[in-house]
Design goal:
alpha/beta, globular, 14 strands, single chain, binds pyridoxal-5'-phosphate, 381 residues
Length: 381
């Protein structure tokens, strides 16, 4: 059996090696390392893929969120509502820009922001909402956009974990996540569903004014060369990364299919188990399984039991991860906002009971069998 990894980018690369190697060599020979043609080609192709009018490549997914928030013209002290149960990048940039993060609960089934908790958290200072499509499951965007419209708030979708996810509205309209809200952001970190061979990110919008503002901010606030209208930053996607990503974009649907096939295998193996809750698949979207995250919530209910599974798997050379052991509202970096005292029973419950199993495009049945047997051996039920 091939060694099991959380994500196997090497095997995935070997399948497209000739194409990728040629694209990289072409960039080396052109020497257009910054802002070369592949950057524009990739942005155009990605825009066609996800349906957003404007696609702005940038250096990483964290910058994408920061640039989006800067473009909204938020002022220090303005409140931005976001789930506590997410990767730190989402919430960190809020505080970095001297805005106030307001953490709310997630839904126990989707693991995404709970619209009821979200609406309750709105105050006269609230200016924006940042839902996260966690693990590849779309947040309930229809409800979120309706709340935002009622309260005149901007919405930034953190789509770092769900690129390619289809969302169906109640009227039957379909959109890709990341192109639904006022702004969408994503990351091309190597382990993401569309991963580069280094860092990368992108921002999406259908709004011409926001697109112009974000392009300018990502480029030192420059409107024309050496004329800087606003304070910006320097955030670019390398030409080499764009060339690689453009090739991988053509395989994205295939990659999503492979992830969903592995998820189906896990679901079947764990069906009927009395301890494991398998990932919920919301009927409004097509889960793209950036992570396959189970909950050990029935029977023995403790973080110790969950951590024991991680150790049991490690002993069998099966990696597993806890995404995320400490929720945002309890992070030391937010101590000045006094959020740790907030009651977040669902978030706390999840942080103690989730465990993510290996999922990627290269898992074979032998590996999946080995993993599921090892999980079942430990949890019983
Ligand atoms: C990966 C990730 C980011 C940040 O992306 P980087 O490219 O690593 O900066 C932001 N939000 C979420 C939810 C992520 O998973």
């Amino acid at each position: 059996m091939r060694p099991i990894q959380m994500v196997d980018t090497k095997t995935q690369y070997l399948k497209i090696k000739p194409e990728v190697d040629k694209a990289v060599i072409d960039v080396l020979e052109s020497s257009a390392f910054i802002n070369g043609k592949p950057v524009h080609d990739f942005a155009a192709n990605l825009g066609t893929y996800n349906g957003a009018k404007h696609t702005i490549p940038c250096a990483n997914g964290t910058d994408a969120l920061q640039i989006a928030m800067m473009a909204l013209g938020l002022q220090p002290g303005d409140e931005v509502i976001t789930p506590s149960f997410t990767y730190i990048a989402t919430t960190e940039v809020i505080a970095l820009l001297r805005l106030t993060p307001v953490f709310v609960e997630v839904d126990a089934k989707t693991f995404c922001i709970d619209p009821v908790a979200l609406e309750k958290a709105i105050t006269p200072r609230t200016k924006a909402i940042v839902p996260v499509h966690l693990y590849g499951q779309a947040a309930p965007m229809e409800a979120i956009m309706a709340i935002a419209a009622r309260h005149n708030l901007a919405v930034i979708e953190d789509n770092a974990q769900a690129i390619g996810c289809d969302y169906t509205f109640t009227d039957g309209t379909k959109k890709k996540t990341g192109s639904i809200a006022h702004i969408g952001t994503t990351s091309f970190y190597p382990s993401k569903n569309l991963g580069g061979f280094g860092d990368g990110g992108a921002i999406f919008t259908n709004d011409d004014a926001l697109a112009a503002a974000m392009k300018m901010i990502a480029n030192h606030g420059q409107s024309r060369q050496y004329y800087h209208d606003v304070v910006g930053c320097n955030s670019r996607l390398d030409t080499i990364q764009a060339a690689i990503l453009d090739i991988k974009l053509a395989h994205l649907d295939e990659y999503i299919h492979a992830r969903r096939t592995a998820a189906d295998f896990y679901d079947n193996a764990f069906a009927g188990n009395t301890i494991i809750t398998t990932p919920y698949r919301a009927d409004y979207s097509r889960h793209v399984f950036h992570q396959y995250t189970i909950l050990l919530e029935k029977g023995e209910q403790s973080a110790g039991f969950r951590n024991g599974l991680k150790e049991h798997l490690a002993a069998k050379k099966i990696p597993a991860m806890i995404y995320y052991p400490v929720p945002g509202h309890r992070q030391q970096m937010f101590a000045s906002f006094n959020t740790a005292a907030q009651e977040m029973p669902v978030t706390d419950w999840l942080t103690q009971r989730v465990i993510s199993l290996p999922i990627h495009t290269e898992l074979d049945e032998e590996q999946l069998n080995y993993i599921t047997m090892a999980v079942l051996e430990y949890v019983g039920g």
